[in-house]
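Below is how a single chain appears once it has passed through the pipeline. First comes the sequence as given, then the structure the pipeline wrote out for it. We keep one example in the README because the format questions we get most often are answered faster by looking than by reading.
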Amino acid sequence: MNLELELSPQVQELANLAQSQVQPMFAQIDRIAEHNTQRVLAAFQKHRVQESDFVGTTGYGYDDIGRDKLDAIYADLFGAEAGLVRLQFVNGTHAITCALFGCLKQGDVLVSAVGAPYDTLLGVVGITGNAHGSLRDYGVEYRQVELKDNAPDREGLAQAVRDPRVKAVLIQRSKGYSTRASLSVAEIGELAQIVKENNPHAAVLVDNCYGEFVEELEPTQVGADLCAGSLIKNPGGGLAPTGGYLVGRKDLVEGAAYRLTAPGIGAECGCTLGHSRQLYQGLFLAPHTTAQAVKTAVFAARIMELLGYQTEPTSNQVRHDIIQMISFGKPEPLCSFCRGIQSGSPVDSYVTPEPWDMPGYNCQVIMAAGAFIQGASIELSADAPMREPYTVYLQGGLTYESGKAGVLLAVERILKESREA
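Resulting structure:
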């Protein structure tokens, strides 16, 4: 029985060429992974992680020593005053929502610093839909600073935050479904400084999804007041079964915790149900696993460039998150790519992705995600809104070898279906 993937000589030749050309980028990625692994190890040692920290709790989750220790480890790794790591966060959007509601009240103004936020946050803000309980429903005004030449408008941001009613500024690190470049930690620091200079009382909140451990620093180490993210992305290392995190100023973390549970309860409750070991071990593996995903993205960029497709970032650009954007210009090759990625997954490889009306999005989305953890985008996945310019967003790869294989199957499918068209 032949258990090898069926790859044509043309694709194998492209793979060899692409991999040889990205070795300098791989060396840089390995250096960052080693640095961040040492930081995580030092944090574990500082907080004297031990077997009893993995026991977990049920019910209310009172006195969960391992949970509280993990909060402190996250805070240290992100250079923050406090951390909140909870299975009860259902996704990154939930963690960001708690952060926003924790620092905003009726009459306040929220400013988005780099255009519209990610699609699933539009309903949270109240821009789209009629969902009960949006920020708009609670009397919070929303403004956004549009991009200028597809990059942050620093002068526009300075002007927008001078209103004393602006109490929070949201910076989205990743590009989301926009075509701008993802922000570096240094750029986030510059934007945070602009906010502080023009409105010292405004809290700078960062949607840090997809960016953790890609660089040597995190946004809270360069001026951000609060960072939020998902455990089924980078920091969960592919092992966390669900959850999210917040790190930042103690008062802001506390406010978000009150939103997650209830005022007066906050972070005191939230059982871990025996999953603490996975959260700890996932964090320990996170720098390495993130590096595998970044390598997969770089390789994908290079092989798609060899085929003539436009990529962002390009294969030789420094990375600030794990997302790779590939523009196809029309729907057919985009769908072929996603179906190829699905066929290269360890789970549900036989499934054929189709565009559908996914909750929280304002157009149909095609999504390839054959993951061990449902929706885990640290595992190889690809998704795309079915609208011009028909761009796919590829991310993840628990190992570079498996990520590479998935990308090659996607390339094989594009070439085969283009010949048959």
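The chain has a mean pLDDT of 95.

See the next section for the split statistics.
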